[in-house]
Amino acid sequence: MIKLKKLAPLKGFITLWGSQAVSSLGSSMTAYALIIWVYQQKGTASSVSLLSFFTFLPSILFSFAAGTFADRWDKKRVMLLSDLAAACGTLTVLLLHLNGRLQIWHLYLINFLISFMNAFQGPASYVATSLLVPKEYYNQASGLQSFSSSLISIITPALATALLAFGRLETVLIVDLISFMVAFLTLLLFIRLPELQTELNKEKERFIKSCLYGLQFLREHKMLLKLILYMSLINLLAFTSGYGILSALILARSGGNQTVLGLVNSAVGIGMLLGSVAVTLMKPPKSRTRVIFITMAVSFFLGNALFSAGHSAGVWIVTAFTGNMLVPFTNAGMTAIMRLNVPIELQGRVFSTRDTVQYFTIPLGLFLGGFLSDRLLEPFMAGASPLRPILEFIVGSGKGSGMAILFLITGIIGVSSSLLCLRNKDFSQLDL
């Protein structure tokens, strides 16, 4: 175990992390409140899905170019400009709402523009963290980041709901703007990033060539690319099941019991929170790749395969908690491997390429989860197939059993792929 006083070398990072966490909490409350507002206006799931779609899409579309700019430009300046753009978006929403002119298409456009700027903020933030954190503390830094994101996911619904109840939408937006000021001023006045001299400062590469360099780097480092492709598969499986249709499955199998759904979601968040604390306090493992594959295999077994066979709140809560408690170990290992294997002066471009390759399967998974459940698996379990009795023995019957099959399938694939990668000794070359 690592004592808290030994985290002293992370003082600069902790200052940045804490202020950014405050800003992220404000942004998360705004996102939550706007989802409620949009649903109240339209009453359709598609309108809410489009809000998420326009939030996520630009970070994929512009990631390659954004990484190049992050490597060329001053990292602190990129982060400040990105944060300022997000604040301008929130301020625009506030002014439109106060004047009674806010429409849903305004939110789609503003979310798109904010996400476009976040495409630049992401790689700059990656590099800034690498500059502030000594190599031996990469795991602890990742653990702290995972801790804050998990904590935010737990407290956001309660805080946003309370602000909406005692105030209105404008109250949430004002709190978001205050949280932005905390992060912006902290970064501007108290964070000093070490100078980083790169070849891009000395000779101007052709822009397109520079944008594609991240892909070239990964092609030259095949095991790193294979690990990223593995994580891309993991994201596809996770967002096809747990992160995509979890709420629908619980509501279907519990008779619409929102209390049970809340307990399961809380178990997910608390599990990730405790896992993040463990990652922060534990010493880095000798083999991060083995930790990634083992934790993912166990996570998919508990959180997907075993979860699918559950018929009560107790089983769902326990499997959701234990399965998600292991996720921070995977995330910390992956982040540390990337930082240790990619030179700092290239991290903007390579990390942006990683994000595109690793995360493009997320929207695909969200689409497949709903499509396969509604159009294929739920009708299949309501039909008269000879396979149905066998599957009912595993996942049960009735509404939601088709979605449970999807959890079972993704669980089996997740466990199998993780164990296959664990057998591949070539991945050990990434354990620097």
Helices and strands, in N-to-C order? HHHHHHHHHHHHHHHHHHHH
Number of domains: 2
Mean pLDDT: 88
CATH class placement of the largest domain: Mainly Alpha
CATH topology of the largest domain, anyone? Growth Hormone, Chain: A
Strand percentage: under 5%
CATH architecture classification name of the largest domain: Up-down Bundle
Estimated radius of gyration: 22 Å
Largest sheet: none
Helical content stands at: over 70%
CATH superfamily of the largest domain: MFS general substrate transporter like domains
Structural class: mainly alpha
Helix count equals 20
**Number of DSSP-assigned strands:** 0
Poorly predicted ranges: none
Envelope shape: globular
Distance between the termini: 21 Å
Describe the structure.
44% of the residues are buried. Helix 1 (11-42) packs parallel to helix 6 (138-166). The protein has 432 residues and is an all-alpha fold. The protein has 20 helices and no strands. The longest helix is centred in the first third of the chain and has 32 residues, at 11-42. It has 2 domains: 1-191, MFS general substrate transporter like domains (Growth Hormone, Chain: A); 209-432, Growth Hormone, Chain: A, CATH 1.20.1250.20.
What's the topology here?
Elements: H1 11-42, H2 45-61, H3 63-72, H4 75-98, H5 104-132, H6 138-166, H7 169-190, H8 199-202, H9 207-211, H10 213-220, H11 222-240, H12 242-253, H13 258-281, H14 288-308, H15 313-325, H16 327-341, H17 347-359, H18 361-382, H19 388-395, H20 401-423
Helix pairs in contact: 1-2, 1-5, 1-6, 1-7, 2-5, 3-5, 3-17, 4-5, 4-7, 5-17, 6-13, 6-16, 10-17, 11-12, 11-17, 11-18, 11-20, 12-20, 13-15, 13-16, 14-15, 14-16, 14-20, 18-20
